[in-house]
Amino acid sequence: MRQSQLFTKILKESPKDEISANAKLLERAGFIFKTMSGVYDYLPLGWRVLSKINQIIREEINAIGGQELHLSAFQSKDLWEKTGRWQTLADIMYQFKDQSGHDVGLATTHEEAVTDIAKRFIRSYKDLPVFVYQIQTKFRDEPRARSGLIRGKEFLMKDLYSFHQDEKDLDLFYKKVVKAYLKIFKRLGLSIFVTEASGGIFSKEPSHEFQALTLSGEDTIFYCQKCQYAQNREIATMKEGGQCPKCSGKVFQSRAIEVGNIFKLGTRFSEAIGLNFISKDGQARPAIMGSYGIGPGRAMGTIVEVSSDERGIIWPESVAPYGIHLIFLFRESVKKTRLKKLAEKIYQDLQKKNIEVLYDDREDKSAGEKFADADLIGAPLRIVVSDKTMAKDSVEIKKRNSKKIEVVKISRFNQIKK
RNA sequence: CGGAGAGUAGUAUAGUGGUAGUAUACAUGCUUUGGGAGCAUGAAGCCCGAGUUCGAUUCUCGGCUCUCCGACCA
Predict the structure, then answer these.
(1) Position A103 in a domain
(2) CA quadruple A378, A379, A383, A386: dihedral sign
(3) In this structure, are A380 and A259 located in the same domain?
C-alpha cells in the first residue's frame, strides 16, 4: 500500500475527548473512528488488524472442531421470552417495534438463537457433540461505554457454542477451549491469566475469564505468579501478599482486561427452548451446553493498551496492519529519480514476495514526519531508503521495539526476505 | 442511573455582551528534506432551541452530545 494513497491520515493531536491509550492512539493513527459513544468504525488500517485477529481466532477454533456460521443480529421477542431474557436483559438489549408492530431486539448474545436452530438438527446422541461459532456484531445498551474499544455498545464477538450429551463430555471440550484460547492470546501477543469468576446465573461452578494484566483494566484480579492460578476479585478467596490456595506461592493483585470468557451453561437454554436428544437408552434428554466468547475488537484495544510507547503503537507481527513500513527519504540535490526508482523496486520486490508493506512514497513530507508517522502506526519493521543508504548500496532496517538500526546491503537484503 | 467536567475551523486551543485570534492540517507558489521544515497568499469556525437585551458565541433556562469517577457489566 502506498501511503500517498491511504484513505486515512495521521492526526497530529490526540482527540481531546479520549483518555485511554487505545482510543487516543488508534484514532490518531487512523485505525478507528468514533461515531458515537461506545461505537467505532474500523478504517482500513484498523480493519486489517481486526481481520488478522479474527483469522487467528478462526484457525484455532477450527482446530478444535468449531464450525463457523453467522447468525442474524435481529432477534424475535417470542424466542427470548422462552428463556425469560426478553425481560431480564431489557435494560441492555435494544428492543423496539418494526413498522408492522412486531417486537424485535438486537442480539446481546446468541444462546437463544443458536439453541433454537440446533433443535432442528440435533435429534440423537449420535449428533453430539457439535460446536458452532461465529464472529458477529453484538449490541448492548451499556449504561456507560468507556475506554475506546474496551467497552462499547456495538462490538464484535467471537461466540462459540457447544452441545453435549453429558457433563463429562462438556468438561472435556471446556478444557480444550481453554487451551485453544491460550494459543490464540499467545499469538496475539497477550499474556493471560485464566481467572476463576462467578458462574453467574448459569452455573454454580465458576466460569473462567481470560484476563490481560494492565493498569487500565476495569477488572481486578488476584493471581499467583508461581502456578498462574487466578481469581476475579468478585469471588476471590485470595489476598494480595497472601498465599496461593493451590501452591502457596505469593499472591499479587492487578487491574486487568477481560478479553475472553467461557461458561458451562448446563441445560439452562436447552430446557427452556426444548432442545432434546434421544440418548442411548432411548430417553429424551436436554442437551448440555457451553458458551465461549472472545471480543476481537476488545483484544485489539488491549494489545494497544499493553504495547505502546510515547511515540505510538507497537504491534506484534501477527496482527500488524503491515509487517514492513518502507520509508523513502529524498533530497533534491541528489539524483532523486534514481533513488525513487530504487525505492519503487524494493517496494515491488517485497510485494512480489507477498510481504505486506506500507510504502511511504510521499514526496511532500519531511523525514521527521515520516518517522513519527511510522512510529505511531507501529509496524514491526521499518526500512529506510535514502540518498545516504543508496550511497552504500544499502537499506536501513529498524525494529519498532528496538533502537538499533541495521545497515544491510541491498544484495543481501534481497536474499533475507523470502 | 448518581456525581464531576467539557462542547469555538478537519484537529488542538485562546477570547469577547458589539459576529472571533493562534497553532496545525488543507489549497497555490517558491525554497526545503535523517526525527513532526521556511516564507508568502488563500479557503475554513462559536452544538441546538428559547429567554433577557438595541444587540447573545459570551448571561439565564431547556435540550443534545462527549469524557471522567461511581453504580452496572450475560
Answers:
(1) yes
(2) negative
(3) no
A178 and A235 both lie in a single domain: yes
Question: In angstroms, rounded to a whole number, what is the distance separating the alpha carbons of residues A224 and A204?
Answer: 24
Establish whether the CB of A215 is closer than 7 Å to any nucleic acid atom in strand B: no
User: Residue A24 and residue A11: Cα distance in Å, rounded?
Assistant: 10
ipTM computed for the complex: 0.92
CA distance A160 to A179: 14
**Same domain? A48 vs A167:** yes
Nearest nucleotide, CA A371 to C1': B35
Residue numbers in A 385-414, CB below 7 Å of strand B: 386-389, 396, 398, 405
Residue A362 has pLDDT above 70, yes or no: yes
A417 — pLDDT class (breaks 50, 70, 90): low
Each residue's pLDDT tens digit, A215-233: 889 999 999 999 999 999 9
Asked if residue A368 keeps its beta carbon closer than 7 A to nucleic acid strand B, the reply is yes
CATH code assigned at A198: 3.30.930.10
Whether residues A121 and A251 fall in one domain:
yes
Q: How far apart are CA A18 and CA A310, in angstroms?
A: 16
How far apart (Å, rounded) are the C-alpha atoms in residues A313 and A320?
10
Percent of chain A with pLDDT over 90: 87
pLDDT digits (tens, 9 = 90+) for A376-390: 999 999 999 998 899
Q: Are residues A283 and A141 in the same domain?
A: yes
Give the CA-to-C1' distance from A389 to B62 in angstroms.
65
Tell me if A9 sits within 8 A of A30, measured CB to CB. Answer: yes
Say whether both A331 and A261 belong to one domain.
no
Q: What is the pLDDT of residue A109?
A: 96
Residue A184: what pLDDT? 98
Q: Which of residues 42-81 of A touch strand B (CB under 7 A)?
A: none
Number of domains in chain A: 2
Nucleic chain B contacts, protein chain A, residues 104-163, CB cut-off 7 A = 109, 111, 142-147, 151
Domain end residue (candidates: A281, A309, A337) = A309
Which nucleotide comes closest to A290 if you measure CA to C1'? B74
The answer to whether A232 CB sits below 7 Å from nucleic acid chain B is no
* Strand B bases contacted by the protein (CB, 7 Å): 1-2, 5, 10-13, 24-26, 32-37, 65-74
Number of H helices, E strands in chain A: 12, 23
Domain that holds residue A348: 324-416
